Structure formats: structure tokens, C-alpha cells
């Protein structure tokens, strides 16, 4: 089925599909102005490269500091609080933000144009942050991106020519205040979710008699006995200090996860040009499908697996899927498979743990793998490549697992699942509130723009 869209040629900024499909603010063009009229490019070179931390702009519009000691080749530039900064490549994915007031100064590479918002006095920085998150603004930015697929950029010049609605200061303040109130509720839901998750994990580990000792972020020196090290690395030492070597010291007897007939670890299918989806296309699970709260099956890819190989690769209900390769923070994250998709397999970046269901309850094992103690265990044994951490099968099968009675396992697993699902629900409610707040703000901006109310 084909849809037809008709627009006036004079309304197009470029003769391409993206320009045709981009959304526009309703109301008179005379009430819109180029964003470059209200902001000015800041070109303050970062002379003292060791004195200012580098920053990152995330797809949700948040700002964070990169790790201390991060090095960036070439010139870098200073952004100040309330400055508008975007990524030339990822602005179309949402990487645009007003620098929060908590950052007096923060540095970026030349890939991040920086703008002084206060130069004209026309826009409140908080309002501009909201405007840049609206669906209409992001649609227009997407239409500006040019270049090859995956590396399309928005140039500072085209960004500065982007037309935005001009609304009055009093309207801006009202929209910001209303948006802030809704965000405060959402932020409290996030705090509640973190509390729920923390209590859930603590109760689970207390029941097993296990203790996790968090280490403050940024610690550079630790002292441990050399004989206790899995390997001579800082991460291995940190794992020991956090309790990752004490998994066998709880109130129940323990055994290596892969010992006896407790479980069998399986590898997945390696992707290659030869197994692109064809006559035997099968859905498969990859690292991106395994989330902290469980499985995200909204985007499941396919891979070609002949019938002769399907039995050995098929994921069965009760299997545990474990990320073999990921970032250091996420390597080893796991999820329980409950048979959601028929004849589903997994790729080689995901381990599959087939359990002896007479000895191990799937929800209990899934919960145990989600504890910070197990995170410390995996991180202490992870091997780093350029930007990816990986664990071997030995890191999984050698891991001590407490073995309470199967009924106790079932109860502990269920309570852990319920707690994490409650936390996930609180986070989802927070996300919905933010989306509603943004939609309401966009409607308010559009209405004020259509009425032509300007009071600054």
C-alpha cells in the first residue's frame, strides 16, 4: 500500500523525501525565526586540556562527564552552563542539550558545536531544552542531516538556519514551570524504582547469607592478597574486595554452576554472510534484546538456520541467556527465556544455560545472576578488547552457586522477579510522564505560536 503526500514546492527547503515528510510548526512563517538569531557560536578553545573534564551528550538530552584521563585528539572547546550543545552526527537521534548549571565548564571535541543562549535574551535556556526535545523540532533536524548512511551530519550553518517558533517570555516560563512539575514527579518515581530494586536485591542476598561491599567510584589503589587474585588486574582485585570471590560463603552449600549435572552451557550461531535470512530464516536473540529488567522482544532479527542445526541451537523454556560480550558494566547480564517465540535461536555473543530443572529453579538462577556479587564476579574475569568486554564459558560454569532446597529457590526467585518488575513498572511510569509532559509542552508552544503572542 502506498501513501501520497502533496506539499507546495515553495515550502520545501530541499528537494528530497526527508524534507517533504518533516513536520512543521503551525502558524505563520513570519512568526518563526532562525535559531541562529537567538544563539551565538561559542569558540572558546580548551587550552588547559588537563584542567577541564570532557563531556558526552546522550540521546535523551542528558549530559554526563567522561572518565577522568580521557584523551581527545585535536582541538577541543569549552562549554559553559546554559550553553546549547549538539552532536553533528547524533543530533538526529536526540543528542542535543542545554548544559546544566551544575557544570561550570565542560569540554567537547569539534564534532560538538557550542552556542551561547544568553546572547539575545530571547529564550530561557530551560525552554530551549524543551523545544529541542519536541517531535516537530527533531523531525526538522532529521531533514537537515546529510551524508552517507550512519555518518550523516547536521552542519552548524544548517542548524542556525532552522526556523523555530517565537513565543513570549511569560509563555516560556509557564511551559517550563509546568514541565518541571511533571518532571519532578517522574524523577521521584525513578528514585522509588531504585529503592525498590535495592531492597529487592538486598533481601535476596540476605536470604542466601551473602554480602556485597560496594567500592567508591574512582578508587585507584587497593590492597588484596596475591594468592586470592584470579588474574593480576585491578578489576580482579576490585571483584575480591566487593565480595565476588565469596559466593560460596553463604548459609547454603554451593557448587560450581557447571558441575555435575546442574547445567550445560551452550554457544550460539556465528553470524556470517552465509547465514543471512533465507529459506530457513529463524528469529534469534542478540545482546540488544537482553535488558536489565528482562527481554526486550520489540526488535528481533532473523538468521538462517537449517533444520539439521535447529535442535541444538533452539532456546527452550527455562533456559538462561547470558551476554558474552558487552560493555564492562553489562557483560554477563542475563534473562530468563519462557518460550515467548517459537523456534528461536541465539547468536554467538550470547551464552545459553540449559538447567537441570530438578536441581535449579530458572527464576532463582536468573535472580542470582542479576546480583551485584555476580556482576563483580564477571567483571573480575572479563577480558577487554578495544571497547568491548567479554567473558569465557569458564567464568560462567566455574561460578559457585548456592543450592537451597528447590522450593526455597522458587520462592526467592518469585520474590526477586516481583520486586524487579515493580521497579521496572515505576520506571515505565516515569518515562510515560516525561513523554506526556513533552507532548503537552509541544501543544502549548504550537498554540502560543499560532496565536502570535510575543511579549519580549
UniProtKB/TrEMBL annotation:
Keywords: DNA-binding, Restriction system. It comes from the Bacteria. InterPro entries: Restrct_endonuc_typeI_TRD_sf, Type-I_RS_S_subunit. This is Type I restriction modification DNA specificity domain-containing protein. It comes from Amycolatopsis speibonae.
Amino acid at each position: 500500500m502506498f501513501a501520497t503526500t502533496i506539499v507546495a514546492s515553495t515550502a520545501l527547503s530541499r528537494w528530497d523525501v526527508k524534507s517533504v515528510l518533516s513536520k512543521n510548526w503551525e502558524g505563520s512563517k513570519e512568526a518563526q525565526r532562525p535559531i541562529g538569531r537567538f544563539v551565538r557560536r561559542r569558540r572558546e578553545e580548551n587550552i588547559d586540556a588537563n584542567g577541564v573534564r570532557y563531556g558526552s551528550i546522550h540521546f535523551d538530552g542528558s549530559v554526563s562527564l567522561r572518565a577522568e584521563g580521557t584523551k581527545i585528539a585535536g582541538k577541543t572547546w569549552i562549554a559553559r552552563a546554559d550553553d546549547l550543545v549538539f552532536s553533528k552526527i547524533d543530533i538526529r537521534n536526540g543528542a542535543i542539550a542545554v548544559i546544566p548549571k551544575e557544570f561550570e565548564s565542560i569540554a567537547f571535541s569539534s564534532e560538538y558545536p557550542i552556542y551561547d543562549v544568553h546572547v539575545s535574551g530571547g529564550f530561557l535556556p530551560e525552554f530551549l531544552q524543551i523545544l529541542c526535545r519536541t517531535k516537530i523540532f527533531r523531525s526538522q533536524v532529521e531533514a537537515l542531516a546529510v551524508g552517507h548512511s550512519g555518518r550523516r551530519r547536521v552542519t552548524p550553518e544548517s542548524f542556525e538556519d532552522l526556523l523555530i517558533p517565537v513565543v513570549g517570555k511569560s509563555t516560556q516560563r509557564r511551559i517550563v514551570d509546568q514541565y518541571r512539575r511533571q518532571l519532578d514527579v517522574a524523577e521521584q518515581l525513578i528514585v522509588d524504582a531504585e529503592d525498590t530494586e535495592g531492597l529487592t536485591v538486598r533481601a535476596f542476598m540476605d536470604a542466601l547469607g551473602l554480602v556485597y561491599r560496594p567500592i567508591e567510584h574512582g578508587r585507584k589503589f587497593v590492597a588484596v592478597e596475591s594468592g586470592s587474585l584470579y588474574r593480576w588486574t585491578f578489576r580482579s582485585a576490585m571483584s575480591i574486595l566487593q565480595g565476588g570471590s565469596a559466593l560460596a560463603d553463604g548459609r547454603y552449600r554451593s557448587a560450581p554452576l557447571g558441575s555435575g549435572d546442574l547445567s550445560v552451557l551452550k554457544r550460539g550461531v556465528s553470524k556470517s554472510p552465509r547465514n543471512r535470512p533465507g529459506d530457513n530464516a529463524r528469529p534469534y536473540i542478540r545482546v540488544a534484546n537482553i535488558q536489565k529488567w528482562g527481554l526486550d522482544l520489540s526488535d528481533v532479527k532473523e538468521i538462517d538456520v537449517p533444520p539439521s542445526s535447529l535442535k541444538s541451537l533452539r532456546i527452550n523454556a527455562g533456559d538462561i541467556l547470558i551476554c558474552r560480550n558487552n560493555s564492562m558494566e553489562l557483560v554477563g547480564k542475563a534473562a530468563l527465556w519462557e518460550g515467548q517465540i517459537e523456534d528461536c535461536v541465539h547468536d554467538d555473543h550470547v551464552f545459553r544455560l540449559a538447567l537441570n530443572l530438578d536441581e535449579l529453579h530458572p527464576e532463582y538462577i536468573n535472580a542470582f545472576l542479576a546480583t551485584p556479587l555476580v556482576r563483580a564476579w564477571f567483571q573480575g574475569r572479563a577480558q577487554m578488547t578495544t571497547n568491548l568486554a567479554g567473558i569465557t564459558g569458564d567464568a560462567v560454569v566455574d561460578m559457585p552457586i548456592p543450592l537451597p532446597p528447590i522450593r526455597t529457590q522458587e520462592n526467592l526467585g518469585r520474590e526477586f522477579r516481583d520486586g524487579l518488575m515493580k521497579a521496572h513498572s515505576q520506571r515505565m511510569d516515569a518515562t510515560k510522564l516525561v513523554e506526556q509532559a513533552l507532548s503537552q509542552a509541544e501543544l502549548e508552544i504550537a498554540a502560543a505560536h499560532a496565536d502570535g503572542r510575543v511579549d519580549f
